[in-house]
TrEMBL record:
SMART domains: PKS_ER (SM00829)
Biological processes per GO annotation: formaldehyde catabolic process
Higher taxonomy: Eukaryota, Fungi, Dikarya, Ascomycota, Pezizomycotina
Keywords: Metal-binding, NAD, Oxidoreductase, Zinc
Protein species of origin: Cladophialophora psammophila CBS 110553
Protein name in UniProt: Enoyl reductase (ER) domain-containing protein
Keyword Oxidoreductase: yes
Record-level Gene Ontology MF annotations: S-(hydroxymethyl)glutathione dehydrogenase [NAD(P)+] activity; zinc ion binding
Length: 379
């Protein structure tokens, strides 16, 4: 029996507790990963507080990075000793997965959120209580963790796992919304607005800036929108050309139109999930513009579109899951960008011990830390 240190949520809205758990033997297509670091994401907190579906007790965590220490039956894509970043899980068999679009896997929900199916998701015992432990196929708030091999993305052993852990969700979601959805080169995007510059939105700003450096005629206007002044200061340092604090303008849409010369923006990404912001995002589009929803509002929320100007301007509204990223290829690309100093994600991060998980969450919610990262070696 393998024991692990885990950060457990016993019931809805309870704080994390740090305790020892027992892991079941590896099943088919599972690997045991010794984690070096795990990023903390808003989705962990949403499940902890019952804002997204969950079952308890549960071990969350879905931005793990570590080293494969054992492989279960049938594992083919990774080997013992590989350094891996952990990303979302997918089935590898549905039409989307077979077309290398796992981000729209037909089993996305069942494989990544906490389901009541005990066969799939309980692989851990906490004081003799079966505990849900396959959140995003990894539950990487446990060290070691049992991980589905589909989640594993091999990376070069010289790359810093502690820094790159958040690539698997937050960074690929933000950067992917630019590289894979907005596609600034293909669509000749000159102006972009990013609503909400926390971890995801900051990654979008960095990605847009990196593209602008290579293609100076594109993305000449990058507007960051946020209510927190210190985040706007950082966004400027990361490549935003303009910033807007919604608390300081009367009309957000008019301000964006003013900055973009009256025509509206070519592209916009919403990372806030706030419905009034999503409506403003669509309203700020120029002709041929694309608006992308990345942030998730509460389950029943609905946005609205004034249809006539939408038709007249041939505009587009679409959603993106995990930045429409094929993680196996996209994460090594992002890791290379980081190593070239072109995606400075370390500037968003603060490191915490596992015992500091509740402080890490509090700091993230208050905005004093954009991206907390749990460092397992320090426990
Ligand atoms: Zn699938
Ligand atoms: Zn996440």
């Amino acid at each position: 029996m393998v024991t692990a240190t885990a950060l457990i949520v016993e019931h809805t809205a309870r704080p994390f507790v740090v305790d020892t758990v027992e892991l079941e033997p590896l099943r088919a297509l599972e690997v045991l990963v010794e984690l070096k670091a795990t990023g903390v994401c808003h989705t962990d907190v949403a499940v902890q507080h019952g804002k997204l579906p969950g079952a308890f007790p549960v071990v969350l965590g879905h931005e793990g990075a570590g080293i494969v220490r054992a492989a279960g039956p049938g594992v083919r894509d990774v080997a013992v000793g590989d350094h891996v970043l952990l990303s979302y899980s997918y089935c590898r068999e549905c039409r989307s997965c077979l077309k290398e679009r796992p981000y729209q896997c037909t089993q996305m929900f069942e494989r990544n959120f906490v389901t009541e199916d005990p066969c799939r998701s309980q692989s851990m015992m906490w004081h003799d209580t079966p505990t849900y432990a396959s959140f995003f196929g990894q539950s990487s708030f446990s060290n070691p963790a049992i991980v589905h091999e589909a989640c594993c993305v091999r990376i070069d052993k010289k790359y810093p796992l502690e820094i790159l852990a958040p690539l698997g969700c937050g960074v690929q979601t933000g950067a992917g919304s630019i590289f894979n959805v907005v596609k600034p080169i293909e669509n000749e995007i000159r102006s972009l607005v990013v609503f909400g510059v926390g971890g995801v939105g900051s990654a979008a700003i960095m990605a847009a800036h990196a593209l602008h450096i290579d293609h100076p005629e594109l993305l000449t206007t990058i507007i960051a929108v946020d209510r927190k002044p210190d985040r706007l200061v950082l966004a400027k340092e990361l490549g935003a050309t303009n910033v807007i604090n919604p608390l300081k303008v009367d009309n957000m849409v008019a301000e964006i139109r003013r900055i973009t010369g009256g025509g509206g923006t070519d592209a916009a990404v919403d990372c806030t999930g706030a419905v009034p912001v999503i409506n403003d995002m669509v309203g700020a589009l120029g002709a041929g513009g694309v608006a992308v929803s990345v942030g998730a509002p509460s389950a029943a929320a609905e946005m609205s579109i004034e249809v006539f100007p939408f038709i007249n301007g041939c505009k587009k509204y679409q959603a993106s899951n995990q930045g429409n990223s094929l993680s196996r290829k996209f994460l090594p690309f992002l890791a290379d960008l980081y190593m070239q100093n072109r995606l400075p994600i370390d500037r968003l991060q603060k490191q915490y011990r596992p015992s500091e998980i509740n402080k890490a969450v509090q700091d993230m919610l208050e905005g004093t830390t954009i991206k907390p990262v749990i460092i397992w070696e320090s426990c």
